[in-house]
């Protein structure tokens, strides 16, 4: 029925048009599919459930644990997806908000978990995962509580922030690892005189700056200072401990404590740890997860026994307990409220029987990660990383308070503002007073 | 879109009789349907959605609540966003000023017939083949003050705080952006210059014009429309620089490189304030559209006919 303006519509042309239409349809089809495709959280095997977690140092441990469950429960298999850290943080929020969350939601507890709870996206686990709660170190497991109810449970190793020491440089320069703030400044002078960077810090990544303000605020004012901030009490940032911590940071920056190009050092590539194991920097304040990196990246240097550890120095007249630590108590699993009851039940079973069970603890230890359960002492003593693991494990067990990283503890918009302002403190472009005002403005 | 609407051979595809069409030549408008459908689904509807979102408060979870014009007020009074607008303007001007001359000169050179020209052209062309994210990661590593270029070539001067110093980082970005995009624009200019009939150059030579005079009197006027096209792409493109800046600095240190597209992203997907982020997105779209329309008007692109003689 086609009438063409062309006087002689050749049949070939018609076929050509049709072919072109088909071709364009063929082009469009995959696009349309991919538009609604992507990760299908419900795509677990029938009767099973889904879990999203991170790539990186802990991936092996998760994979082993999932596999163990899948072997024992072939009809309730876990379909796992692994994401890079930043990509995950963006994707999971959209998925949870849209009701497409995986059954097991990897999270950091803190502000984001509180958001999930407020919106009814995750289920209350109180009383449902007692077996797992019994295994976990209590202070760690408590970090998964929101308003007194258990909404998340620890799922991997514990990650305290440790002061790593380059023993070789300390011997050469002839100083002892600093135990007080005064000794810290003395050590800075001594290393600077030898052309060594006293402290490596990955400023380009911004979040390593947090470890400094977290420890200093705790040492000076105790954990209550940040507790008030996390509770959104009006003007909570005005506590004098915050301004004093910031002043000391700027004092250290001005004294050359971080060298003069720390702002370009990138944490993702472990450039901060590399400064230490190439003997360019003497100390590094970083999470326990970089330990494995030292071993892997500089095996010879490590074998020579050059790596040491120390607690964060005390501050004279400070109110905080010197045994307090900061970092990530652990990462956590929450269970999606959008999952079916069957999926939720399977997830509870998995949590109770497989999460942080003996095999996964052994796996953490094998990977050089610090276990988050109570009776791992023996397994640690038998491992080749006993020295470090025992140190960090003891640190966590003895800590009166384990402060969750501030960027995780706060609401996302507050955390973003904090990172920007802290970066400006290290750049010297804002004063502690301006920082306090800017941060007070985020309290809601 | 334009490729689909433009009358391409083979000519007249079927038109239906019962539809009274004023023009009978040109392909059926049904040919437009797939592109139009895509444009509607993936551009118009999301754009409308963003405009609506800019009037709400939404943190990515739960349901958005209506907020009136509060987000728009906050966007235009927030010092961070205002700073981002200023940075974006500075970036547009600086990237244009650095890229345009280099691209024109390289393009003219590549259009010539010098020895080894093709080899050079391939080399200039290379950066175009890399994804911006890869370029960002590579430059981040090269600019590392301790293990980067300075260490590789043992040139201490190269060990600057390139990405960490508020004074330096902006210019470092301008440089890397130019490195990335100059090849593309050179390619445009090369094509433009090659279209110029040699007779014009011969005439100029007979009139006794030197190289410089020829460049300004023949080459530049003849590639006027290429200049407009390239400028539009450059200027509107500079409003959307994101990947490189995101990978290399993430807006830091502090807010030193937080340009508007990045401000939109960080506000939306780091702070989860979808309302203000949507408002910024609408601003970007409007500014981009206005600028490209203006540039086209200025260049008289409505009647963009060939001005070449004898071609």
UniProtKB/TrEMBL annotation, chain A:
Query: Which interval of the chain is the signal sequence?
Result: 1-34
Is Signal there in the keyword field?
yes
PROSITE patterns cross-referenced by the UniProt entry:
TAT
According to the lineage, what is the superkingdom? Bacteria
Q: Which Pfam families match?
A: SBP_bac_1
Keywords in alphabetical order, please: Signal
The UniProt entry, under InterPro entries, shows: Bact_solute-bd_prot1 (IPR050490), SBP (IPR006059), TAT_signal (IPR006311)
The protein's name is: Sugar ABC transporter substrate-binding protein
Which lineage do the record's taxonomy fields give for this organism? Bacteria, Bacillati, Actinomycetota, Actinomycetes, Micrococcales
């Amino acid at each position: 029925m086609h009438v063409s303006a062309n006087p002689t519509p050749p049949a070939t042309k018609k076929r050509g048009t049709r072919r072109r239409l088909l071709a364009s349809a063929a082009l469009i089809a995959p696009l349309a599919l991919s538009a609604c495709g992507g990760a299908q959280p419900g795509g677990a095997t029938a009767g099973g459930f889904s879990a999203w977690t991170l790539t990186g140092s802990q991936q092996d441990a998760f994979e082993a644990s999932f596999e163990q469950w899948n072997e024992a429960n072939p009809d309730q298999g876990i379909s796992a997806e692994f994401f890079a850290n930043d990509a995950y943080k963006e994707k999971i929020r959209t998925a949870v908000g849209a009701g497409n969350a995986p059954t097991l939601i990897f999270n950091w507890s803190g502000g984001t978990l509180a958001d999930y709870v407020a919106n009814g996206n995750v289920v209350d686990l109180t009383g449902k995962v007692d077996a797992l709660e019994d295994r976990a170190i209590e202070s760690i497991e408590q970090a998964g509580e929101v308003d007194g109810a258990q909404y998340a449970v620890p799922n991997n190793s514990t990650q305290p922030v440790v002061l790593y020491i380059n023993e070789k440089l300390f011997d050469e320069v002839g100083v002892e690892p600093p135990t007080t703030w005064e000794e810290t400044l003395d050590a800075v002078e001594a290393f600077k005189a030898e052309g060594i960077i006293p402290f490596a810090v990955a400023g380009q990544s911004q979040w390593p700056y947090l470890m400094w303000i977290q420890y200093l605020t705790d040492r000076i004012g105790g954990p209550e200072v940040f507790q008030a901030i996390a509770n959104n009490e009006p003007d909570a940032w005005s506590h004098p401990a915050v301004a004093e911590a910031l002043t000391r940071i700027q004092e250290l920056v001005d004294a050359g404590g971080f060298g003069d190009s720390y702002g370009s050092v990138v944490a993702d590539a472990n450039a901060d740890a590399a400064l230490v194991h190439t003997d360019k920097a003497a100390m590094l304040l970083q999470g326990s997860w970089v330990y494995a990196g030292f071993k892997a990246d500089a095996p010879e240097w490590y074998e020579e026994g050059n790596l040491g550890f120390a607690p964060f120095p005390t501050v004279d007249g400070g109110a905080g307990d010197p045994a307090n630590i900061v970092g990530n108590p652990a990462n956590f699993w929450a269970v999606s409220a959008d999952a079916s009851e069957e999926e939720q039940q399977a997830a509870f079973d998995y949590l109770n029987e497989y999460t942080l069970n003996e095999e996964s603890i052994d796996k953490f230890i094998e990977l050089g990660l610090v276990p988050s359960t109570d009776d791992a002492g023996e397994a640690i003593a038998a491992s080749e990383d006993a020295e470090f693991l025992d140190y960090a494990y003891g640190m966590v067990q003895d800590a009166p308070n384990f402060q969750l990283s501030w960027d995780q503890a706060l609401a996302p918009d507050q955390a973003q503002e904090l990172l920007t302002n802290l970066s400006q403190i290290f750049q010297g472009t804002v004063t502690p007073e301006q920082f306090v005002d800017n941060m007070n403005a985020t309290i809601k | 879109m334009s490729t689909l609407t433009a009358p391409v051979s083979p000519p007249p595809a079927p038109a239906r009789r019962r539809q009274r069409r004023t023009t009978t030549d040109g392909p059926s408008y049904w040919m437009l349907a797939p592109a139009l459908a895509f444009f509607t689904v993936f551009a118009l509807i999301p754009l409308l959605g963003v405009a609506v979102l800019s009037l709400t408060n939404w943190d990515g979870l739960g349901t958005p609540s209506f907020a009136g014009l509060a987000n728009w007020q906050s966007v235009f009074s927030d010092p961070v966003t205002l700073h981002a607008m200023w940075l974006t303007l500075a970036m547009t001007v600086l990237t244009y000023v650095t890229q345009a001359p280099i691209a024109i000169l390289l393009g003219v050179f590549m259009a010539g017939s010098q020895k080894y020209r093709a080899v050079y052209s391939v080399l200039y062309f290379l950066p175009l083949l890399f994804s911006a994210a890869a370029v960002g990661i590579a430059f981040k590593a090269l600019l590392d003050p301790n293990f980067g270029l300075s260490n590789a070539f043992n040139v201490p001067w190269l060990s600057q705080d390139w990405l960490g110093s508020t004074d330096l980082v902006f210019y470092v970005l301008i440089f890397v952006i130019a490195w990335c995009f100059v090849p593309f624009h050179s390619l445009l200019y090369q094509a433009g210059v090659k279209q110029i009939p040699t007779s014009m150059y011969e005439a100029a030579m007979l009139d006794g014009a030197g190289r410089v005079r020829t460049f300004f009197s023949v080459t530049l006027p003849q590639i006027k429309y290429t200049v407009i096209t390239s400028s539009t792409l450059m200027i509107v493109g500079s409003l959307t620089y994101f990947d490189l800046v995101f990978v290399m600095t993430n807006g830091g240190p502090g807010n030193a490189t937080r340009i508007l597209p990045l401000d939109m992203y960080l506000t939306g997907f780091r702070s989860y304030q979808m309302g203000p982020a949507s408002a910024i997105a609408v601003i970007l779209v409007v500014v981009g559209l206005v600028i490209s329309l203006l540039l086209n008007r200025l260049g008289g692109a409505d009647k963009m006919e060939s001005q070449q003689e004898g071609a």
